[in-house]
Amino acid sequence: MKHLFIINPKARRIQGRVDELEGEIQNHFSGRSHVEFAIHKTQWKRDASGYVLSQVSGAREITRVYVLGGDGLLFEVINGVVGLPNAQIAWYPLGGDNSLISAFGGKNSLRFFRSIKRLSLSPVVTIDTIRAGHHYAVIHALIGGEAEALRQGEVLADKFRMLPRSACYMAMGLGQNLLKNSAQSFRLEGEDLEYEGELISILITNAPAYAEGLRPAPGASINDGYLDLFMIKPIPRIKLAAVIADYERGRYHKWPAYISRYRRKKVRISSRSTMTIILDGEFFYNTSIEFEVFPRSLDFVCPWGVSPGPEESR
Length: 314
Prior knowledge:
This protein is α+β, with helices and mostly antiparallel strands. The protein has two domains: 2-95, Rossmann fold, CATH 3.40.50.10330; 140-295, Sandwich (Tumour Suppressor Smad4). Helix content is 27%, strand content 34%.
């Protein structure tokens, strides 16, 4: 087995730790001359996708690709190897919110993932991915006003780096979008689901949580062969705080007039105006896109002491 480590040295939470991470890798493989390993530092956006594809595609041996970073770098790497039978993904979570950890027991599991030794010796589980147009996500897709709020929050956070990112998202999300009920007209079609009307947000998720710790789907599973779909309609301002608070904690069922949840394998979403779309933290724009679960399409290292499943199921 070949071991390939991917690091984005420009990532905010990686800066200043690159030497430390390289040292942990070198120390683990020291004296094991029979084991092949390499470290690649990304140089530009999407560099990781092309690089891992060039290293894994066509090779006979198994390559375990280690992602030392957050959701964005994980997205890049997965889009380079998804579906390849000789690729395994090992994740060393170093992002801002590390949403995927919610599918493996929650934040208490982080310490198991943050060990090169444990990741190199642990087995894999096969998980689902989300096919979104020509891309793949493993955590979630977010469409509409909430996605636009997060985009504006990113701009604000980059401009005022001393502010917590969560505060920037909250300011743009509530102040600029949800309080204004920035609804957009959508059409959703697929598997006895047909809807046309205004929504302020659409969430398609493979995991219980996303963004800054929002947990609307406590029962979502990373390997059940289904996507969890949430549709949020415009909410009266007087009820907004209560509805959003319950939604963020998975109590969406208290507000059926405003929040609908479905479990589907495929759905097409379209709009006459451009949609802001987030796939695992990466932004895209389109007027139509189809989402489909790609069952058991990724071999993912599950460290000893951890098993797939949301925290609430334990």
